[in-house]
Amino acid sequence: MINRRLIRVKVFKILFGRVNSESGSLTGAVNDLMTSCEKSLELYYFILSLPVAVKKVAEGKIEAGLKKYHPTAEEANPNLRFVQNAFISKLEENEELIRFCEKRGLSWNDHSSLVKKIYASLVASDYYNEYMNAEVSGFEADAALISRFFEEELEENDELHATLEDLSLFWTDDLEYVVNVITKKISSQKQNSRFNHPDLFLKPDDREYAVKLLETSLINYQNYVNLMAAYIHNWEPERLAATDIALIVLGIAEAVSFPDIPVKVTINEYVELSKFYSTPNSKVFVNGILDKIITGLTAEGKIEKRGRGLVGSPE
Q: What distances in angstroms separate CA 284 from CA 66, 275, 290, 298, one per listed residue?
């Protein structure tokens, strides 16, 4: 599930937090990193269960309408297409999803107000009304609606983001990635196919990659900061963004420790992170300094690359 770009983000956050809090426990840092990764998987299951909670709100609305003494024509003859959505039924019957959420205490029951607002937003949307009134129905249309639901109703929902942040600080910035994982899985689903859930890491060796990147960065942090001094004129650490320093340290650590990752990939990845987590000018600074340092270390034989060497494309 978690790719290397997200791993880099998580390692960056742990490294930045540890360095700035002056916490020297390497074991504690690794434990925090693994917790952060596990929390991404938790968020996947929690978000995946949301359509089931929304369906329950819809069922409640229908039931309340039917119980009215003088229901409207729509209340007396409700459109049941959404509450009979075959993809939501697949989620409701998915034992792994149910067990995981129960074991981790992941439930939308304590957030009924938020779920009702999400339902109201869904019902007001054009794509929902097109689905409810379409002449043709079936599993593909049901799955497409839920995929659209994830794409449209969550990203700009400030209350949802605040709720997730309150539930876990590790969920900050993970929602977009998790939604992308979910929508890709939905697109491959067939009515009679089993809904398989992802493993924690996208590749078998990514756990080792994550731990090694963090440990190398923490152990060599001051050495790599000192190394930067040789490549920056008028060296004044206090005037540099702390985020830039952490990103450059990570870039050096990755270049030194992973011979199978091309230098171009490493530099591009940390430049991309600088666009989101540092200053407007950081991308130019991080790119320039990382390139100079890695070129220098390569010339000294301290960085060796296999295969394509310095040539590569982003992962």
A: 63, 10, 10, 21
Burial class (CB in 10 A: 0-12, 13-18, 19+), 18: buried
| Residue extents of the structural domains in the chain | 41-187, 220-299
CA 95, 96, 99, 104 dihedral sign is negative
User: Backbone phi, then psi, for 301, in 5-degree steps?
Assistant: 80, 15
Structure confidence by residue, pLDDT tens digits, 290-301: 999 999 999 999
On average, the pLDDT of the chain sits at 93
Q: Which residues contact 234 (CB under 8 A, 6 or more apart)?
A: none
State the angle between helix axes of 26-48 and 95-104 in degrees (0 to 180), rounded to the nearest 10: 130
Length of the chain: 315
Each residue's pLDDT tens digit, 267-293: 999 999 999 999 998 999 999 999 999
- Buried b / exposed e over 99-122, threshold 16 CB at 10 Å, is ebbeeeebebeebeebbebbbebb
Query: Domain 220-299: which CATH class?
Result: mainly alpha
